[in-house]
Amino acid sequence: MKKIHLKMGEKSTMTQNPKFKYEDWGPSFFSLAFIKTVLSVNWCSLGLEAFEGFAAPDTALFTLDGQKTSIHRFLKGNRPLDFSDVADFLVVYLAEAHATDGWAFVNNVDISVHKNLEERLAAAQTLVKEDPLCPVVVDEMTNITASKYGALPERLYVIQSGKVIYQGGIGPWGYNPEEVRKVLEKIE
Predict the structure, then answer these.
(1) Where are the alpha helices (DSSP H) in the chain?
(2) Cα–Cα dist 151/171, whole Å
(3) How far apart are CA 75 and CA 80, in angstroms?
(4) Cβ atoms of residues 53 and 163 within 8 Å
(5) If you ran DSSP here, which 8-state letter would residue 93 be given?
(6) 114, 95 contact by CB (below 8 A)
(7) What is the pLDDT of residues 153-165, one digit of tens each?
(8) CA 29 → CA 7, 11, 38, 41, 75, distances in Å?
(9) Is 183 helix (H, G, I), strand (E, B) or coil?
(10) Contact at 8 Å (CB) between 27 and 119?
């Protein structure tokens, strides 16, 4: 089983992260907590509305200081990294994928399932400490953004002029930053 998991991980960046060892997460695969998480993710994805070639849903979000905003308000202006002339970047912190009271990994951050917006905002600060080089916002407690973008546990999108031009696979197996790079290179 370990060989299968690691082979799947080669298609994404998950096996390249030295903090993410198989011994930390592998034994939890197919546990009851894992199965519950997979079912929850699939249930949430039933609301998927973001598709390549179509308008990007403008879902409600919160800034880290608790102010209500939306995805479309971030489509222009902030251009970090090496695609600064063609791309704006935004991280949307969703429901915690590996909460300590859910499907948790060994040696992972200690974040419980968020019971309210304040807890989600506080958990997002853990991500901010890693210096993501772009704005970080959080999803509503209804998980509307995660649902409309089919983004649990993680997913990459490229939105241009309010239209989805790239929809990545569901992470971690389908999480492929190199595909995003190729899309952005074509825009340059």
Answers:
(1) 2-9, 22-25, 32-44, 117-128, 144-148, 177-187
(2) 8
(3) 13
(4) yes
(5) E
(6) yes
(7) 889 999 888 889 9
(8) 15, 18, 10, 15, 37
(9) helix
(10) no
Residue 69 burial (CB count, 10 A): 13
Phi-psi region of 153 (alpha: psi -120 to 50; beta: other; left: phi over 0): alpha
Overall size of the chain counted in residues? 188
Instruction: Give the N- to C-terminal CA distance of the chain in Å, as an integer.
Output: 42
Do the Cβ atoms of 10 and 174 come closer than 8 Å?
no
| Amino acid of residue 149 | Y
pLDDT value at 67 more than 60: yes
Please name the helix (run of DSSP H) or strand (run of DSSP E) that holds residue 92, with its range, or none: strand 91-93
Three-class DSSP category at 78: coil
Cβ 24 vs Cβ 106: under 8 Å:
yes
Q: Pull the structure tokens for residue 150.
A: 């089919």
pLDDT in tens, 6-40: 666 666 566 666 777 777 777 777 788 878 878 88
Residue type, 19: K
Q: How many CB atoms lie within 10 A of CB 131?
A: 7
